[in-house]
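Q: what does this look like with guanosine-5'-monophosphate bound?
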Amino acid sequence: MTDDCLFCRIVAGEIPATVVHETDDTLAFRDIGPKAPVHVLVIPKAHHQDIAALAAADPALAGRVLASCAAVAEKEGLTGDGYRVIFNTGGFGGQEVFHVHGHVVGGRPLGPMLSI
Ligand code: 5GP
Ligand code: ZN
């Protein structure tokens, strides 16, 4: 738990979120500003800054975060049409919340991978 981290505060129940999937050490909840019909954020409950830090510190947990992304896609009905999982990382990556999270987005064609 990091006191000034938004997503740690969601894990702690201090800030409300619409949870769609939970395991012992991961949490998935709807993005507050959805960019697609389905837009869910998947996080480890433990604080790690980004996907590189998580993979270095606890690769097994990184694997469970990916498994939770897949479980969310299944629960949200995305597996037939397909979907995207995005881990924005660092400044150029557009990361705004520095608690690693995968965006699971889908429910419509998502277009090219990047808009420049
Ligand atoms: P990033 O830009 O770091 O990859 O993504 C951060 C995401 O967190 C954004 O898509 C943003 O809409 C979402 N977000 C920011 N604040 C909150 C919040 O308080 N609750 C939820 N559920 N999502 C949030
Ligand atoms: Zn955190």
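The chain has a mean pLDDT of 96. The chain has three helices and five strands.
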